[in-house]
Write a structure and sequence with these properties.
It comes from Aristolochia fimbriata. The protein contains 17 helices and 10 strands. By secondary structure, it is of the alpha/beta class. Helix 11 links the parallel strand 8 and strand 9. It binds 2-acetamido-2-deoxy-beta-D-glucopyranose (NAG) (5 copies).
Length: 437
Amino acid sequence: MARFPSFYCFVLVSISLLLFRNVSSDSEDGTENDPDCEGRWIHVRRLPSRFNLDLLRNCSEYPVYDDFCPYIANHGLGQKTHNRSRSWYRTDSHMLELFFHRRVLEYPCLTPDPGRADAVFLPYYAGLDALSYLYGPDVNSSADHGLHLFDFLQTDSPEIWDRRSGHDHFLVMARAAWDFSQPIDYDPPVWGTSFLHLPEFFNLTALILESRPWPWQEQAIPYPTSFHPASLARFEQWLARVRRSRRTTLMLFAGGGGTAPGPNVRHCIRAECENSTSLCDIVECSNGICEHDPIRYMRPMLRASFCLQPPGDTPTRRSTFDSILAGCIPVFFEDLSARKQYGWHMPTAEYPDFSVYIPKEEVVSNGLKITEVLLGIPRARVRQMRERLLELIPRIIYRRHRSSAGLVAKKDAFDLAIDGVLQRVKRRLAEGDELSR
Ligand SMILES: *[C@@H]1O[C@H](CO)[C@@H](O)[C@H](O)[C@H]1NC(C)=O
Ligand SMILES: *[C@@H]1O[C@H](CO)[C@@H](O)[C@H](O)[C@H]1NC(C)=O
Ligand SMILES: *[C@@H]1O[C@H](CO)[C@@H](O)[C@H](O)[C@H]1NC(C)=O
Ligand SMILES: *[C@@H]1O[C@H](CO)[C@@H](O)[C@H](O)[C@H]1NC(C)=O
Ligand SMILES: *[C@@H]1O[C@H](CO)[C@@H](O)[C@H](O)[C@H]1NC(C)=O
């Protein structure tokens, strides 16, 4: 990993500060009476920089974790994959907190008046702040994660929170819920902070990369891929390439793990692939080597019909979204990998139309061969599924900030997340009225 001199990080942070300032002053006037904004007003809570930008200054200070300084560039999209690349970045999914903040600042219906807002965005980089509890000096006080934020909300203009008891507040947590949901009194501690277990935060909405299996205050939104086009033309160029790509491999697994024998679906996939090399391709991604290097897996995904998405340490994978972007039909082995997660972005009822489901028990315990299942799907059906999958692409990408009007007209993952939040807040407030009647 390249180590960046700390002054470089400082420059990045200063640049972000400047850009954030400019954007926020631009967008806080001019739209006050826009009828399209009815029911969609968002107020961005002003938080001291210790809750967001200061956290970026520490980007090289977590010894057990990567130095994440390089991924801060371009408001969290990371650096471009190479100098001439226009839409491809070395995006780290944990930086979504930063990028989402940037996109909120260009949302057309921002209001400086919290009393008028339909929802309140907290630009708190919760996952980055969690690093000092997960991997840093605060590892033994992980039940404290978030309390300083709550203190601030209670002491600085407390009426903003109190107006709706926090039911209209939302934030982004760019990790899995598992990293934030350790019961407060676990002794000895196992893993994670207790942010999502604090009653102080039960009312807010947390947009997260992976939610818990039961409905709670979080909602999963897509992992960012590395593709962030800024114009409709670039988006359509990519779509055309995906559509005409020749699919010469039946199935592909891009990932790591599964090398140790045992009753584990990744191991079964590897065994099956080693046996049928003409039908199956493996892109070796152990030790995170693919994470910031989309070229390694995007080309192979363009050549495969199906992309296997087995659960790993947790049920979801960024790779699911990379494969959708490549038009490679995802094969899921459990519902928690996507169907029970991303309901705002990928319609739950339509999974059979764009993905394949093979229960992992069938593979692990009953010896079901994945290749046989996939070979059994008629070609015409595979084409249909791919077409349906292509329709999802605009919904799961995060287009670049300051995109052209043509691309802005299509709803991307950010826009759908905002729509979801507004609907959810409205529903919760209505439920609250119902209860108090
Ligand atoms: C991060 O920065 C803060 C102050 O800005 C400091 O107190 C802390 O020790 C730094 N390092 C880590 C790993 O949190
Ligand atoms: C990319 O651009 C940077 C800065 O302009 C330059 O230092 C670097 O050599 C370039 N890399 C390539 C591969 O052209
Ligand atoms: C956390 O607690 C454990 C067990 O008491 C101790 O060994 C460790 O040094 C503590 N870590 C820090 C960073 O205080
Ligand atoms: C959460 O909402 C409930 C019901 O609206 C309210 O009684 C409670 O005080 C709220 N919690 C916080 C921390 O604001
Ligand atoms: C590998 O192929 C052999 C011979 O066709 C077959 O008996 C065996 O079950 C296959 N193993 C796997 C894991 O597919």
